Amino acid sequence: MKNDNLLACEIVHRLRGRIRIKSKAFKYIGNSLKSEIEKQLLQVRYIENVEISLITGTILIYFEDVSLSDQNLISLIQNTLNSHIFEICKNEKIEKSSKYVIERKLQEESPKEIMKKILTTAGLLGYNLFFKSKNTAALTGIRRFLNYNTLSTLALAMPVLKNGINSLVKNKRPNADTLSSSAIISSILLGKESAALTIMFLEEVSELLTVYTMEKTRGAIKDMLSVGENYVWKEISEDNVKRVPIEEIQKDDIIVVQTGEKISVDGKIIRGEALIDQSSITGEYMPIKKSIGEDVYAGTIVKNGNISIIAEKVGDDRTVSRIIKLVEDANSNKADIQNYADTFSAQLIPLNFILAGIVYASTRNITKAMSMLVIDYSCGIRLSTAVAFSAAINTAAKNGILVKGSNFIEELSKAETVIFDKTGTITEGKPKVQSIEVFDNSISENEMIGLAGAAEEQSSHPLAIAIMSEIKDRGIEIPKHNKIKTVVSRGVETKVGKGKEAKTIRVGSKKYMLENNIDLTLATEAERGIISRSEIGLYVAQDEKIIGLIGVSDPPRENIKKAINRLRNY
User: Fold this and answer.
1) CATH architecture of 9-97
2) CATH of 231-313, one of 3.30.70.1350, 2.30.42.10, 2.70.150.10, 1.10.10.10
3) What pLDDT sits at residue 542?
4) Per-domain residue ranges for the chain?
5) What DSSP string describes 264-317?
6) pTM of the model
């Protein structure tokens, strides 16, 4: 099987003290990098001379130590190339892109703009068909092209004409617009503006459908990554906050974000700490602790805690906005097969000109010859791959998957190894209570869980949600309690009961228990079981005494085994 790895090396020939090695990477190093690599290799003590050929993509090495194995020399070359891999990849991308035909970027136009062009073209076409003056049709010479009808047709066709000519000048090859330009110019030269306008009208309708599909994809992506907050709490002074539209927030403004709210800017925490769900940015389901001085991003959610953030990036500068822009421009990141289809279809375009010449030579009828320029034989090849990739990106966005370009879909088809993020991917992302241990004989299992629920009742942490879900499933009544105190990344506590009989209930990590001088000796054996089952242990304490241990884990998705087995069979 052919190895497409840039750093893959193969030995062309080998003699005593001399070896020639071929690598795809050598074709993309350029003259400046060539000299640098040669100097770098000549510093190796056993290498006498080095010659790199950019044309054949090979390197010829003369060396002293004849005991060196082929693998030693290949590893040396690969390590040297790897130190310049970013520049090599960049050169490869530039060279490949220069081979492809230049096509117009339709995503730069909105459906409204294209709709205006369609209506204008339709209006001018209607005028030519039904109201065109015979005097205008009879114009000859330079006046034939200086009347408002012809000038209007040329103005409407300018984007197509410009791109068609640009492809011939810069790319040295025709594209689809070159073909359309030929048909439009030929029609105008023959005084048949209506034919030119008909071609333009059909093209604009097809462009409208393409751009509409792009807009739908943009909408799906924006809905998925939407920051979601139209108003935020702006800090006017340390004791005064004001609710303002997100559009009014400027760089260096301070905003206050509380539990359950989305963060609307990229910035740094200057006060407070919180557990933040960053799954929309990083894909990691479990929230992480953020404190003073740490960065936070727009689109993430404060699951627990209150923070004040100084805005560093707002509006289109935010991380989430840059992600949306990146995926909006996915059509510029074409797959190799898509570029190949575009190039191959461009090679068919000269066929139209040849056929037009044959028809004219046979019939001496310029109108019939012109009709061969209107038929685009390359259209099906070019559009089929583009539509397939565009549909895939759009469908992925609707299902919550970001694909940054069709080239990444193609790369996925070549993958031999798939690495999964466990939480929320292989698992459901919804932790559940799996095991319960009680260490106080005077308290039942349901009573212990009820006490844990008293402390966790107001928390939105996934582990707290697991406990509250278990309480609902069992129909347990949560005892009355006082205000809940949250210690971020440690646990929660509250008081249950009244007066002198009130008892402090703490629920949290082992570290939280030890920080509150709670003896965990009774939980030692149960803790080993929790670890062996890969569960997360939540300790429950009453005053200074441990009373229970709750094991929580995130169960695998129902069909995950089937999905992985299907991947193995591909």
Assistant:
1) 2-Layer Sandwich (3.30)
2) 2.70.150.10
3) 93
4) 9-97, 107-221+333-389, 231-313, 432-553
5) -SEEEEEEEEEEEE-HHHH---S-EEE-TT-EE-TT-EEEEEEEEEEEEE-GGG
6) 0.48
pLDDT tens for 350-392 read 777 788 889 888 988 877 777 676 665 555 555 566 667 777 7
Cα 442 to Cα 437: distance, rounded to the nearest angstrom:
13
* 248-295 tens-digit pLDDT: 888 888 888 888 788 888 889 998 888 888 876 776 667 888 889 998
Tell me which residue of 352, 367, 328 sits closest to 177, measured CA to CA. 352
CATH number for 432-553: choose from 3.40.50.2000, 3.40.50.10420, 3.30.390.50, 3.40.1110.10. 3.40.1110.10
- Residue 398 CA to residue 392 CA, distance in Å, equals 10
pLDDT the model gives residue 538: 93
Please, which residues have CB within 8 angstroms of residue 263's CB and are 6 or more apart in sequence? 227, 257, 276, 296, 297, 298, 299, 300, 301, 302, 309
pLDDT-wise least confident of 63-72, 527-536, 548-557: 63-72
The Cα 418–Cα 102 span in angstroms is 35
Distance CA 373, CA 353 (A): 7
Of 99-103, 114-118, 410-414, give the lowest mean pLDDT range. 99-103
Spell out the SS3 assignment of 123-173.
Answer: HHHHHHHHCCCHHHHCCCHHHHCCCHHHHHHHHHHHHHHHHHHHHHHHCCC
- DSSP state, 64? S
The pLDDT, as a whole number, for residue 562 is: 87
Strands 485-487 and 295-296: unpaired
| Element of type H or E holding 319 | helix 319-328
Place of tokens 């290799």: 41
9-97 with 231-313: one CATH topology? no
Place of tokens 């030519």: 128
Q: What is the DSSP letter of 188?
A: H
Higher per-residue pLDDT: 559 or 397: 559
